[in-house]
Design a protein that fits this description.
Number of strands: 5
Number of helices: 7
Distance between the termini: 17 Å
Helix content: 40-55%
CATH architecture: 3-Layer(aba) Sandwich
Largest sheet: 5 strands, parallel
Radius of gyration: 15 Å
CATH superfamily: P-loop containing nucleotide triphosphate hydrolases
Structural class: alpha/beta
CATH class: Alpha Beta
CATH topology: Rossmann fold
Length: 170
């Protein structure tokens, strides 16, 4: 199974993804590591990515996801997955679940201003929020609020996984 921790910049995807993978005993992959150098350069400059910029990145991630699912491997992957079309490209089928980290603009801006050493800064927040299409009721997704602590968020996700009949060790 693959769990994709999604949300806009500053939502805590990496923090929650690492904690969740550790709790589940699954492998963790940082989706941002698969951005092209050109995409990283744009984001460092505060320039929002276009759909055309994101397409090769999403294709790479979809290929990884398909391989993990074919091999029956369990992974937690971070990916903004802002639009339904992006999530469709990544996959909506068996063996895939999205965890959407939902926060207010104020929470997200505060987090972005306080984080260090990441190429996506506060200047990208408005464009990301404008692009965001929250998961619909017919998508395989769990929504958790950012107002909780990271540990509480992971607890909520684990509880939701159990409620969906997904076996959790630990």
């Amino acid at each position: 199974m693959v769990i994709i921790v999604m949300g806009v910049a500053g939502s805590g995807k990496s923090t929650i993804g690492l904690l969740l993978a550790s709790r589940l005993g699954w492998q963790f992959v940082e989706g941002d590591d698969y951005h092209s150098p050109a995409n990283v350069k744009k984001m460092r400059a505060g320039i929002p990515l276009t759909d055309a910029d994101r397409e090769p990145w999403l294709h790479k991630l979809a290929t990884l996801i398909a391989g993990w699912n074919t091999a029956g491997e369990d992974y937690v992957l971070t990916c903004s997955a802002l639009k339904r079309a992006y999530r469709d490209q990544l996959g909506l089928g068996e063996g895939l679940l999205y965890v959407y980290l939902e926060g207010t603009r104020e929470e997200l801006e505060k987090r972005l201003r306080n984080r260090e050493s990441h190429f996506a800064g506060v200047e990208l927040l408005d464009s990301q929020l404008a692009t965001l299409e929250e998961p619909a009721h017919n998508e395989p997704a769990i929504t958790v609020p950012l107002s909780d602590t990271p540990g509480q968020i992971v607890d909520r996700v684990v509880d939701a996984l159990r409620a969906r009949g997904i076996a959790i060790v630990g």
